[in-house]
Amino acid sequence: QVQLVESGGGLVQAGGSPRISCALSGRTFSSYAMGWFRQALGEEREFVAAISWNGIKTYYTDSVKGRFTISRDNAKNTVHLQMNSLKPEDTAVYYCAAAHMSPHYYSHYDVTNEYDYWGQGTQVTVSS
Fold first, then answer.
1. What is the pLDDT along the chain (128 residues), one digit of tens a residue?
2. Which of 118, 91, 104 is nearest to 52 (CA)?
3. DSSP secondary structure string, 45-93?
């Protein structure tokens, strides 16, 4: 059984640079592409960033490009999301997700249904 556990987040001032992390257990981490999604109160869950199984390919939604960086450490079964220059509109619950790698993934990395496992989420609140 795959488990994803997020950590980090909390209350951050605008302009801050927190890092959130997600640890996977129960399966071989390097078999999965990893993604971060977020869901603000009353909104749909939206794609934030994704990274291929080997870390070579990364993807970002336009609103976070240049501010957020996704990375992974396959030796530690962990994916990170470094968030810089946070804005109040980044406030949301952030979820990590794992997807079995396949050629299909490269054109569907931003689709929630592409992911097989999800963490419980971690709240990031940005105060202005």
1. 899 999 999 999 999 999 999 999 998 999 999 999 999 999 999 999 999 999 999 999 999 999 999 999 999 999 999 999 999 999 999 999 999 988 889 999 999 999 999 999 999 999 99
2. 104
3. -EEEEEE-TTSS-EEE-GGGTTTEEEEEETTTTEEEEEE-S--GGG-EE
Tokens 């951050």, located at residue: 12
Partners of 22 in beta bridges: 6, 79
Which tokens hold the place of 59? 């993807």
Rounded to whole angstroms, how far apart are CA atoms 16 and 25? 30
How far is CA 73 from its chain centroid?
14
